[in-house]
Hints:
Elements: H1 3-20, H2 27-39, E1 46-48, H3 49-54, H4 63-75, E2 79-81, E3 89-92
Antiparallel strand pairs: 1-3, 2-3
Helix pairs in contact: 2-4
Organism: Paragemmobacter ruber
Protein name: MarR family transcriptional regulator
Amino acid sequence: MNIKSVAQLRALLFEMETTLGLVELSPNERDILYAINEVSSGHPKAARSEAIRNHPLAASIPQATYHRALKSLVQRGLVAHAPETRAGQYVLTDQRAP
């Protein structure tokens, strides 16, 4: 793989994020949203806060920034607290980014 291939992948990702409205989110919010999607399991597909936090996309985000970004995703309606679960579990909603 070379830098040109990475640049092409990055351009494709940017186009996809734009189509989905994800460019309106901060990079940290996007990374947390992607991490939730990857670690979600069960029915409904819920993600434990610890699993989200340990995902490679979210692991390097400072703790306070992580919590602010997660709270922002909840306030935007993109993520919700998992119903009928204990605290610290989240689900993706059907809403699209603004």
